[in-house]
Amino acid sequence: MSNKRFYIETYGCQMNFADSEIVNSILMKEGMEPVHSAEEADVIFVNTCSIRENAETKVWNRLKEFRSLKKDKGDLTVGVLGCMAERIRDQIIDQEQLVDIVVGPDAYRDIPNLLAEVDDGRKAVNVLLSLEETYADISPVRTSDNGVSAFVSIMRGCDNMCAFCVVPFTRGRERSRPLKSILNEIKQLSEQGYKEVTLLGQNVNSYKYEDIDFTRLMDEASKVDPEIRFRFSSPHPKDFPEPLLHLIAERPNLCNYIHIPAQSGSSTTLERMRRPYTREQYLDLVERMREIIPDVSLSTDIIAGFCDETDEEHKDTVSLMKIVEYDLAYMFAYSERERTLAHRKYEDNVPEEVKKRRLSEIIQQQMNIQQKNNKLEIGKRHLVLAEGESKRSSEQLSGRTDTNKMVVFDRRDFQKGDYVEVEITDCTSATLMATPIRKTSIREFYAEPALA
Ligand code: SAH
Ligand code: SF4
Ligand code: F3S
């Protein structure tokens, strides 16, 4: 196995990116060498996503490109990892003959054995889901992040069974990673100079390890290093813990930013979606968030055109988004997925052009809201963590505020990894422009006594 060069291309959510780092670690332990392009590799892995039809289409197209690369090159192994592996293993291997290896999200420890099988001339598949696997003992090898912000996976799987969602079928049952191994990973990140950690799970507020709940985990995590800022993704509106809101309000290094997916603003649609909260309960939660953390920034996920969605129901979504005024929203047209409750029970009956029209109405309104919210930032001071050069110019750095807004400012003597106090001078709907004031720290900026 050793000396082989591997390349991993990752699609989908942050969990998948975190998983690719686990796979890096497993392969490098075998003596394999990571490379940065498919052309240089002996083994190509595609870590895939099934969440919507177009996510899968992208991967199919890429696999076809790799098939031609394989024809040219002869000796090339192609593998599919992640959620598509779980969903359509037979199709990938048998029908299309595109790939040699298929590995589901809970079977990554088996990759070295599977590669050995391929070397023996066989196709290799392991898509077993597990009730326990959290890869807790594997230190991810972070080859593709910016050296400043890291993702740490705290749980796997999902038991929620939202009617539209394929994740419970591709990722299996929910399980939480031991607290100690999470804290150890954060300690290592701190020693390596990381300044921002996002704790990841499909449903983080149901984290439960022994008697440790999610609020306690955030408490412990934030005490590991007061100069690392913490975010998390995603919580579920159905049981968001209020003590966590107080903790975020008190702790300078817990970011004032919450991604709280609504999916819809209509109680009847939410019921069909099997999201166990109403519009009113969701709006109450948002109100509590804003009471307890006055400058909290909120973002959301929205699905347009779910089964049977009426114009009235769609209008309720538009109005909910207008009331909340999210700083950021991920908006999607509904895409039917096999095996889900919606697929079994409902009809995907909102015509494509209606979905599109509703989606663009939602997006248009959201852009206007972001433009308006961002204008209100002009003149304000923020603490920005410099993440690297801005996309447009090497003379500028970019980074995000505590509230997760992207900011661009002149580089001067500042460096990647610095906390910089800035004053906002201008904006678009997506980015703030700022003048840097000084290099500082979380504790200095918020003038709080040291933690713990
Ligand atoms: N666990 C996360 C979401 C993971 S999927 C959570 O519950 O917040 C990310 C987003 O994709 C979802 O929030 C939803 O808005 C969207 N999504 C999921 N299934 C979808 C489907 N079938 N069609 C369109 N969008 C979907
Ligand atoms: Fe999917 Fe719902 Fe689980 Fe999120 S909470 S992963 S939307 S089933
Ligand atoms: Fe996609 Fe799987 Fe994540 S379906 S969104 S990669 S959990």
CATH topology of the largest domain: pyruvate-formate lyase- activating enzyme
Distance between the termini: 47 Å
Number of helices: 15
User: Which secondary-structure class do the elements indicate?
Assistant: alpha/beta
What is the β-strand count? 21
The CATH architecture name of the largest domain reads Alpha-Beta Horseshoe
Q: Helix proportion of residues, in percent?
A: 25-40%
Task: Give a description of the structure.
By secondary structure, the protein is of the alpha/beta class. The chain folds into three domains: 5-126, Rossmann fold; 149-375, tm_1862 like domain (pyruvate-formate lyase- activating enzyme); 381-447, Beta Barrel (OB fold (Dihydrolipoamide Acetyltransferase, E2P)). The protein is built from 15 helices and 21 strands. Strand 5, helix 5 (111-119) and strand 6 form a beta-alpha-beta unit. Helix 7 packs parallel to helix 8 and helix 12 runs parallel beside helix 14. Iron/sulfur cluster binds next to helix 6.
